[in-house]
Amino acid sequence: MKLALKKYSYRLGEELLKKYGAVVGEVEGALLQPASDVLPLSGDEYAEMVRDDLLRKGWESEPAGWDGKELVPLMDFRKERVGFLLGFESTSSPENMVGFETARKSPETEIDIGIYATTTVKSQRYFQEASGKSWAGPNFDTAIKGLKNIAQSMLVPVCIEGVGLWKAQIKGIDLNTTSASKIKGLALSFLESEYGVPIVKHVLVQGKTRVLEFDGITRVKERDVLLALEMNSEVDALTSWIEWDRVPSLLDQAYEYREISGRDICVRFVLLGDFGSAFMQEAFGSSGSVSRLSPGVPIECELYPLSEIERYLKASLTSSAN
Q1: pLDDT digits (tens, 9 = 90+) for 101-124
Q2: Pairing relationship of beta strands 64-66 and 71-73 according to DSSP bridges
Q3: Among residues 197, 237, 242, 244, which one has the least CA distance to residue 216?
Q4: For the whole model, what pTM was predicted?
């Protein structure tokens, strides 16, 4: 088991981070402590560990700005025009990200991007159970919703980084280092062998005013099947369509695709890994989050355990070796 980061980008925040590779590396190095060191800690204790690490690396602590009445801390740390906020403590709030925007406007505290660090939903629960201590800060999904609530006042790019856990493994693939695009490509190749028909991978379609994007499209029984891949929630490499309120975005793109193509369609969620019955009912039951948002577009769901992909990869490697 090891720690990894799940990211959400606001105003191309994740792209902008590439400009500050060394500084971002210091932040992510501080966050990605060995799991064995983090599991005994509370959220407050983990935040203190991260603070000590960044102070040793020369980060400016609690840069302050004028709020109209007095000087107040705008963020926890700043270095080379990158701001950083910790979201692991009981006093943490997503609304604190407003401090990034305030800092952007002042020459003394100006930043080009802010990073807000928190935990994923599942890892927060796991850390609390493992340590027996409080992890009371906002989780990754809560932080995203909080940022959306203040987005009208936020011009500064932001990247939310959720500390998660890597557990699942596929033999022959290191999920800790393999890119999301490669994982998707392997999964889609596996599906081609299951369906017995070609799949067009990573499809970009010019819509009316935007580019529509789908993980894959195949043609089955005179109908275009728009594929949306979901990995086990403990494997954070793939961006989820189900989480973060992205289902409406996917379905909106599906409606537009149907309109411009003139074809019958369905949206098929392909779940790879161990998804519990409670999750399945919550997402795909008759009143689930996905089903509730899809009037007029047929929704299908398929579930494949990772062991099936392992067998496919093993057979593929054997075949290529021969």
Answers
A1: 999 998 899 999 999 999 988 888
A2: antiparallel
A3: 197
A4: 0.58
